[in-house]
Amino acid sequence: MKKNKRNYSILIDLYFTFFKLGLFTIGGGIAMIPIMQDLVVTKKKWLSEKEAVECITVSQSLPGVIAINMATYVGRMKCGLLGSFVSTLGVITPSFMIIIIVWELLEKLGNNSYVYGGFVGLKSAAAAMIIWAVIRIGKNVLSGFFKWMVFIAAFISLIIFDIDIVFIIIVSALLGIGYIKYKERGESK
């Protein structure tokens, strides 16, 4: 009986943690990363820093919204399939409710300068959160010459050559596999 009670409390905690993340993450899923890391790694201690970076990497590499992917990943790590379902439901519930409310309000308010100004401020704050997430992840991921070279090549491919992101993900993964296999072969000699 205690185990079931404990599982229910974890499930409830997962739902409301991701509900709060979904409620206060402005600017898309990428903006969720620093908030998610703070909650899941620092406060809740559900994942280590390394596990959080793996979660972000997997979530970013998969199709779909990164916020939903991360919630699903963390929920699965904490409480299996049911945990992934509950976490995912938690993170999407606020968006579902808010978009219905916002749609109704925007229809009534039209071109109100206060509404427009609020969105200008929120978009600016979201950009700051995304840059902070990039810096924080970069500190944990970009160690060593090979990782920096892949980062620079991917960045240049995106920014200068406008190469499709799917191609960059595939090539980066193949380069990483080749690099690890090369290192393994060198270590076995």
Can you give a write-up of this model?
This protein folds into two domains: 2-128, no CATH class; 142-189. It has seven helices and no strands. By secondary structure, the protein is mainly α. It has helices at residues 2-24, 32-43, 49-61, 66-109, 113-141, 145-159, 165-188. Helix 6 packs antiparallel against helix 7 (165-188).
Residues in helix, %: over 70%
What is the mean predicted local confidence, pLDDT? 84
**How many domains in all?**
2
Structural class: mainly alpha
Measure the end-to-end span: 54 Å
SSE blueprint:
Blueprint: H1 2-24, H2 32-43, H3 49-61, H4 66-109, H5 113-141, H6 145-159, H7 165-188
Helix pairs in contact: 1-4, 3-4, 6-7
What tags apply to this protein structure?
single chain, mainly alpha, 2 domains
